[in-house]
Amino acid sequence: MTLLEAMSYGIPCISSDCMSGPRDMIKPGLNGELYTPGAIDDFVGHLNRVISGEVKYQHDIIPGTIERFYDVLYFKNFNNAIFSKLQK
Known about the structure:
mainly alpha, two-stranded parallel ribbon, glycosyltransferase
């Protein structure tokens, strides 16, 4: 949830591509970056590119990249998934 909260304010995130789901939230180059778990050099490289300004993000569009996680849409999609399974 911390990643989503940061992105809701237009802050790009750098995260390891672990099994807990960052890949579902982070779209590399658009709202952040992913690196292989344990690949500290990759993490440092992403961080340095952001700090140096080599990589620039459009902070105003980052919140829109996570709209599907907002409560209203999330619960609507969740309900639709449940009802579609019940109808089968």
